[in-house]
Design goal:
This protein has helices spanning about 5-15, 25-30, 70-75, 85-105, 105-115, 135-145, 175-180, 200-205, 225-230, 275-290, and strands spanning about 35-40, 55-60, 80, 130-135, 150-155, 170, 185, 210-215, 240, 260-265. It is an alpha/beta fold. The chain is elongated and about 65 Å long. It starts with a helix and ends in an 11-residue tail after the last helix.
Amino acid sequence: MPMAEYAAALRERLPEYDVRRAATPEEERELLASTTVATGSTVDPSVLDSAGNLRLFACSYAGYGHLPIESFEDHGVSVTTASGVHAPNIAEHVLGFILAFCRRHHEGWRRQQRREWRAYPTREFAGSTVTVVGLGALGGGVVERLQGFDVDTIGIRHSPEKGGSTDEVLGTDDLHDALARTDYLVLAVPLTDETEGMIGETELTTLPPDAFVVNVARGPVIDTDALVSALRSNAIGGAGLDVTDPEPLPAEHPLWGFENVLITPHNGGHTPEYYERLADIVAENLRQVEDTGEYEGLRNQVL
């Protein structure tokens, strides 16, 4: 989506501000030399020395591992992110995977392609147990949209004492207890040293053989070799993958060949409302700065 739409959304919310969009690297350097607030995907650390007035960088991505955080800190620049803008659309993506598996729409599509009018067995979603690993903005959005489906929910988070909106909240130490009771496993955690490979051979074995795994986190959260092995041996019911490891998934990869695997090309984050939601966050933070005079305690602030 063109960044001009983002600039237009900011102008609509902040009419008294001078909102300018840098169309070239040279324009970017010129604007950063004078602006107080900048927003975008990242900033080259080399230009920060000349950005003496910069007080806030509003990253247009939800993650910030790619940012030169140390350079921002050295120059006294606060940093916020777009965390939460993806929650509605990714939650809908998850529900699409789950309902497709439950009602076996993927099988109906295959039979339609063959013009084959032949019934097949399906499941009911009501009465199922959905375990959501990660109760941040994404996981919370999934749980919110599960309301009304008459399902039991289990939340897994690093700090279970923080609670959550699921029927149960467990710590990562109790992951296997949750997996043993899970019909649909939803992975919505950030990729960290702790979460990399957290779903491996042992965890997939603990899941019931008809359980489905949905990954909208990052590909390496699942051990891909273990997933392929579990699918080949019918140890799980199937998988819905918006992210894979490796990514992009090579054309010859075995995951493409399973009839009980649905793959989307890291597309869950796409939404036409992205810039509108992001502009809401930036405008909210600038209003707070107006009220307090401080670039602290802002929404999604990471520095």
